[in-house]
Amino acid sequence: MTVSEIMQEMIAHANGNLHDIAHFVKVWAYAKTIGELEGLDPDTQYLTEVSAIIHDIAVPYCREKYGRAD
């Protein structure tokens, strides 16, 4: 999958929660920028960006199960 496809999947996974979407987009932008400035090789850059996008993938489940995600 491309980074854009993963981003699209995570946006759908957020189920309209704009706070969650804004958060992972911001984290992704930081990771992308830092990786590029550090000169990461393409595979490491990809993994860095994907990790940033999905780092809070369990948050919706935690809210559902525990009523919160902090």
Keyword list:
mainly alpha, 70 residues
How would you characterize the overall build of this protein?
The structure is a single chain. This protein is mainly alpha-helical and 70 residues long. The chain has one domain (3-66). The chain has helices at 3-13, 18-38, 42-54, 59-66.
What ranges have pLDDT less than 50 throughout 5 or more consecutive residues?
A: none
Seen as an oligomer or otherwise, the chain set is: single chain
How many helices? The count is 4
Instruction: Tell me about the largest β-sheet.
Output: none
Instruction: Compute the separation of the termini in Å.
Output: 29 Å
Helix-strand category: mainly alpha
Mean residue pLDDT? 94
Helix content percent band? over 70%
Shape: elongated
Count of structural domains: 1
Elements, N to C (H/E): HHHH
Task: Evaluate the radius of gyration.
Answer: 13 Å
Strand segment count: 0
How big a fraction of the residues is strand? under 5%
